[in-house]
Amino acid sequence: MRRIIEDEENLTELTTAAYFQANRNIHRAFVEEAGNKFLLDMFDMIWGKAMAFHLFATLQNVDISRSLGDHLALVDVIATKDAAKTLEAFIAHIQDGFDLQIDGLRAEIKP
């Protein structure tokens, strides 16, 4: 996971599409590690929809580098095998991504 995250976060171009793809690849790797084919199929279906990129595209109006979050911290908390702390960290990561999307949408509609 660390290698995947480091490789994906080492972006050569700083475009919305590049950040979207890096995030998709990182999140897909986490889901793959869960070993649940059904969950992986659902992930591919959700992230494969055109709407996912459309929502991500609103991040052009905010600091898009924030979209990568702190994925290595998630790996660290998984390694502790503390389920409560892991769940807490993942929820916070999801909330940070949601907040960034909301900030992007707000910036897009400001006159």
Characterize the structure shown.
By secondary structure, this protein is mostly helical. It has one domain. The chain has six helices and no strands. The chain has helices at residues 2-9, 16-34, 37-48, 50-57, 71-79, 83-109. Helix 1 (2-9) runs antiparallel to helix 2 (16-34) and helix 5 packs antiparallel against helix 6 (83-109). The longest helix is centred in the last third of the chain and has 27 residues, at 83-109. It is globular, with a radius of gyration of 14 Å. The mean pLDDT is 86.
Question: Which terms would index this structure?
Answer:
111 residues, mainly alpha, 6 helices
What overall form do the CA principal axes indicate? globular
The unreliable regions are none
Strand content: under 5%
Give the biggest beta sheet: none
Helix/strand structural class: mainly alpha
Number of structural domains: 1
- Overall mean pLDDT score? 86
Q: What sequence of helices (H) and strands (E) makes up the elements?
A: HHHHHH
What is the CA–CA distance across the termini?
Answer: 42 Å
What kind of assembly state do the chains in view correspond to? Answer: single chain
Q: Determine the fraction of residues in helical runs and give it as a percent range.
A: over 70%
The number of E-state strands comes to 0
Q: Count the helices. How many?
A: 6
